[in-house]
Amino acid sequence: MITKLGEKLTYLFLKYMPDAFVFAILLTLLVAFGAFFWLDTAPLDIIKSWYTGFFDLLAFGMQIVLIIITGFSIALSPIVNRGIDSITRYINTPRQVYFLVVLIGILLSMISFGWCVITAVLARELALRVKGINYPFLIACVYFSLNSWVLGLSSSIPLLLNTEKNYLIEADILSQVIPTSLTLGSTLNMAMMVVMILGAPILMALLIPKEKKPRELNNMLVKGESDEGISINEEAASYQLPFRALSDRFNNSRLLQATIVIMGLAYIVYHFSTKGVDLNFNIMIFIFLILGMALHQTPIRYVIAMKRASSNVSGVLFQYPFYAGIMGIMIYTGLGEKLAQLLASVATLNSYPFFAYLAGGIVNFAIPSAGGEFAVVGPSIIHAVKEIGVGLPDAQVAAMIARASMAVAYGESLTNMLQPFYLLLVLPIMTKGVNIQTRDVMGYLVIPFLMFFIIQSILVVWMPLN
Predict the structure, then answer these.
(1) Cα 179 to Cα 47: distance, rounded to the nearest angstrom
(2) How many structural domains is the chain composed of?
(3) Quick check: is 243 in a domain?
(4) Tens-place pLDDT, residues 353-372
(5) Residue 221 forms beta bridges with which residues?
(6) pTM for the full model?
(7) Separation of alpha carbons 62 and 320, rounded Å
(8) Domain extent at residue 324
């Protein structure tokens, strides 16, 4: 029954879900109309807000592109391919692949959400080797595993709350930091981890489409785009001149590459020894880059690997500014804050975590960035919690703020399953040479979303923090 429902929802998404770019355009218009009719904002002010925000995610978009291509280039190295070949000796059925991909994806994303690139690489390579895999469903498995990032080391909202002199303290919204013992280290967050690690792989295994002829990757590759071709080493050799040349010696110099790798490793050691487990985007990109150079050994091989890895990132490059424009309308017209105030105004001592969770989920459609979203809704949520907690001990109010903030984070993460913003992080790797669109994938995520929405709603309201 659950499988049939999943198939029905997949069909509906195929029929009605437009391309991710069209989705961004429609969402832009929806948010613009919301600002016009609800806040009575002048059309020109809406357009100016849209333009102001349009370029706010340029740095973030470039970071995403670098995460994709540096991660993908690692997968193109011979040693990684040999490692994946060895995995397929033990993982050789579609069900095993789905389960493994979701589990590994969850664990990797808890380290950093950028590491879903590694999950995407592993999933694609397994799909090339194991017969019978429904490839769009496998992409959905990779994307769903990304949900765990909000529980782990790179969860931006709890890290912000624990940062000295953060903007909430500077604005006198908070009087002191909220320690991670009340957020990431709480019983609530541990319970969420258990549900995700144990529940998500099993749930996705139960939702495997029952098709006589599944859409396998090898059968979907566009003619001329097959992953099988000349190797990177062979292509590098083809560039060499028929006579000895200094340029070829530089291009193929292991010593030159090794020098940069050693310099990079020295900085990585310095970074973590002085800053602890600080896994921000920049250091992740740097690690991926240095690791890729080490695995490919020579400059020319790494250049070829990066060229191959960069062939499918156009979606990120031109779509992220449109989402930034949506974010601009929400922020600069006050629409996001107004929505948060509305939800917070109906919250009570018992229901405030659920409304915070709901606010995080709804606003995420227009501001698909946890840090950016919390900057908009966080102050209203925190003010509401402080009003509800008037007369209570400071420690209890701090715990309430921690619960509400984590509820926003959980809601923000889960509703990514209904909108394709972060799917653009996965698609460039998994759809290289394949005609797959967001509508082929999103339908498989509706039931997991609904199931986890119910579970998380219960946990954010009733699960103790300690």
Answers:
(1) 40
(2) 1
(3) no
(4) 999 999 999 988 888 778 77
(5) 434
(6) 0.82
(7) 10
(8) 2-211+248-462
